[in-house]
Model the fold of this input.
Amino acid sequence: MTNTKPPLNVLFLCTHNSARSILAEVLLNAIGKGRFKAYSAGSSPRDNQQPNPLGLKTLQDAGHSIEGLRSKSWDEFARPDAPKMDLIITVCDNAAGEVCPIWPGHPATAHWGYPDPSEGNAPDAEKLTAFMQTLLAMKRRIELLCSLPQDKLEQSVIQTNVRRLAGS
Done:
């Protein structure tokens, strides 16, 4: 029996879309196995913002492709021609507190906060450890999301379920 339901579109938001949101996008696309289509964006990416090289290295070291990853503004996903999001998850406290665009379709929202692994002046080796810890923490939560039965992902109940995962 094949799943005939279209995948749930999930947008992960952070401020610059250079680290945490990109990690989450890659993980959900890998773990979601077609049940989810993940995207990432930032509320205010800097001019010429690029994904954090240590984040990309962490993804590669964990066996994930980094092809096509780029930092994007959340404005791309508020346009009429953008994919309709079913779920929007902020992964940094700054983005969680910002006024978001009006999302078409009124998707469910949740905040899954993670410390910024790129913050501070620590040597790259320490930051790589922080990136891996963030990746593993996200992986656990995303695995829980992906393990939810289809009826728990229906629009009417997804809001409650993804917010519960914030405590995981």
About this structure: Residues 8-161 form a domain with the Rossmann fold fold (CATH 3.40.50.2300).
